[in-house]
Amino acid sequence: MIVDSPDLPHRLFLESMLARDKYGATGEGITIAVIGTGFHAKMLELESIVEPIKVGHKKSEMIVLNSEDDSEDTHDDLNAAIIHTIAPNAKLMNIRVASNERGSTESRVATAINLAIRHKKKYGTPTILNISMGVKRTNPLSPFFVCDGTCLLCEATNTAMKAGLLCVVSAGNHGGTPIRGPITCPGASRETVTVGAVTTEPIIAGADKGKFRVKVSPYSSWGPVQASWNKPNIVAPGTIPVRSRFTFPLPEYVPEVRLTSTHSGTSFSTAFVSGAAALVMQKTDDIDLVKNSLYLSAEDLGSSELAEGNGMLNIFEAVKFTERRRNI
Amino acid sequence: MSRKKGTKEVEMHELANVIREYSWIPNRKIPLLISFEKLNRATISALEDAKVDVCEVMPDLKMVYAEITPKQSILDKVRKIESITRISISREVEVHDSRQP
Predict the structure, then answer these.
(1) What is the CATH number of the domain that holds A20?
(2) What ipTM was estimated for this complex?
(3) How many Å lie between the alpha carbon of A101 and the closest alpha carbon of chain B?
């Protein structure tokens, strides 16, 4: 796949605006639970769309983020911003189970999934779980993948899917080759929408000189998980240029320099797919149709299926596909 | 939750190896995720009788987060609880983010 601009996130934002204008897809009525490092709703000015978590016994409540005083930029700040840009009317649920540096544990992630299922049963929300983390389960003595999608964390997401929650999970940042596919759990689960990352590289010769080729990011984890099913299912942009909030302490005569950094990871690809899923779910509550819309409208990149799954996310085509299927 | 034949036995065997590895460290607790065919008060009290610290009950997932002292005797008692389908160590989960200035 060849594109004119290397800015893939911008391309997807434009696609979402097109879907908004043509089909009225804004994510209205959809709630996305962001399970991860937590985001700063106040700082991001997302307070009006954050849905409070109403259920949960004492211990579960401990994992809910309430840290507006925490000045550190979290990984989910960017995820929440991406989701909100794509699906501006979708509500967000803030479930913090990890910190940027220390990660989390399986039990905390499982607790968060259980909390989301209980909330769904009681109040009907959330509808989507955005999980941008995972456990790498490989055997150091074997080149092959150990989890076959049946570990307890994978089973937890399967249970969530059965309860009507669409789980969008990152594939992992471990790269891969056809014989070694370190897809992290719960991304290895059969039912989840597992997301890999793409980036662009400039074409320096030939007819397309000056354009950019979209390719799977070198860090994006490869499948397969089992002979019968492949992961990741879909890929989306994973490299996001971000202007940092923090500045260098420079002398007065030097103009202010803001730090710019690149955030890379399959986490951010997951946020794009969660946002797109919210637009599609506004049109249908059939989870299988949502998955099919995302997969069948994806654009082929021409690389291995083990790396790109069904191809790169196309938000406009996914919404169009659902709208057409709904009208049949 | 689907019950895979032999999985519980394999997991118990792996856990026994971990316990052997950590048994010499004083006050060491091993975090576990345990899933059940049926999760009710009786199964929770069976775990507590086996001297397992039940930290979090997840009824919708039919799972429990628990911690055990690495002793073979405790593991033997846990093995006898019929309704347990799976048991595994609660491992660290990584955030899929890498920042480059």
Answers:
(1) 3.40.50.200
(2) 0.89
(3) 8
